Amino acid sequence: MPLAARVVLLDERPDGPRLVPSAPLGRWVMRPMTKLLRALEPGALITLDLARSPVSRPRHVATVLWLEGQADLLGLDLAVEAPDMVSGELLAFSGLDVPVRVVEPARADKSAAAL
Questions:
Q1: Which of 6, 43, 71, 98 would staple 76 via disulfide (CB 3.0–4.6 Å)?
Q2: Contact, 53 vs 17, CB < 8 A?
Q3: CA distances to 22, 46, 105 from 61, in Å
């Protein structure tokens, strides 16, 4: 993915704001996420939605650990939604001290494909 195409979306939802990176995590995400975190009210529950950025390398895990520290410094509560079991397990064994939920996409049913 070209560097210019990497963005972090702040999605405001009734259950709280969500940070949605468009590419696998790394150093590129630190500046935009810092700005977004500083714009939030202390005490807010923020969800890191990793649907488009699976965790498969040490730098991905390190970025989530960094984000946890930033959220803690700013008084924010962080939760993580992992896109697959591998990402969820890597984060669970990393020492991350926030809730991690695995949200796998719904699989297409064969009968739906026949329609």
A1: 71
A2: no
A3: 16, 18, 21
Domains (range + CATH), the chain: 17-27+45-101 (3.30.750.24)
pLDDT at 8: 87
Report CA-CA distances (Å) from 72 to 26, 77, 79, 86: 19, 7, 12, 25
Which pLDDT score, from 0 to 100, does residue 11 have? Answer: 87
Average pLDDT over the chain, rounded to whole? 87
Q: What is the pTM of this model?
A: 0.84
Question: Which residues, 6 or more positions from 49, have their beta carbon under 8 angstroms from its beta carbon?
Answer: 11, 18, 19, 20, 81
